[in-house]
Design brief:
Helix content is about 50%, strand content about 15%. It is an alpha+beta fold. The protein has a single domain (about 1-195), classed as Reverse transcriptase/Diguanylate cyclase domain (Alpha-Beta Plaits, 2-Layer Sandwich), CATH 3.30.70. The model has no long low-confidence stretch (mean pLDDT about 95).
Length: about 200
Amino acid sequence: MIGVLTGDIISSRTKLANEWQPVLTRILNQYGKEPNDWELFRGDSFQIRVAPEGALKAAIHIKAGMRQVPPLDVRIAIGVGTEEHAANKITSAAGSAFILSGECFDALRKQTLGIAIGNKKLDEVLNLMLSLAALTIDNWSPTVAEVIKMAIEHPEMNQEGIANKMGKSQSSISEALKRGGYDAVMRMEHFYKQQIGRL
């Protein structure tokens, strides 16, 4: 089983590629190597293969990175399934995870995050949770997004550690995490991980 994220950058034409691509590639590099594990294509689209239980956290991580570069945002579809054909380039690989991710991406309308596991009941529950979470996530300010990105990248750090690393006060870190609904978003991510562990 693998997780496949298919995504594109919203409003990418409003910025030069060098204003957002380095942010995205730095995040993608934390999950694997290009082009075997991830690839950018069509200028503002990407695909990445991750462990299935880490797929939602990776999507939230990418979202936090892109929300730091207003007015940009990202649309991401997660597919969890098999990989029947591995290739040197992820965009040439095949399997149910790739099909589910692609179909889920094509079905994204106003939503910016979607999941397809191929289990109708679980897909419904997870997508309902995502649509509710998006009410907060889609409104992260650059400041909030930056703090959440740091918290995701350094799970071992407490708020004080994050504050020291970012040169901010602990109270401003606490406020940013609260405004971004970080605890609730991470509880959703934990629920997702539990469900994937049972598949």
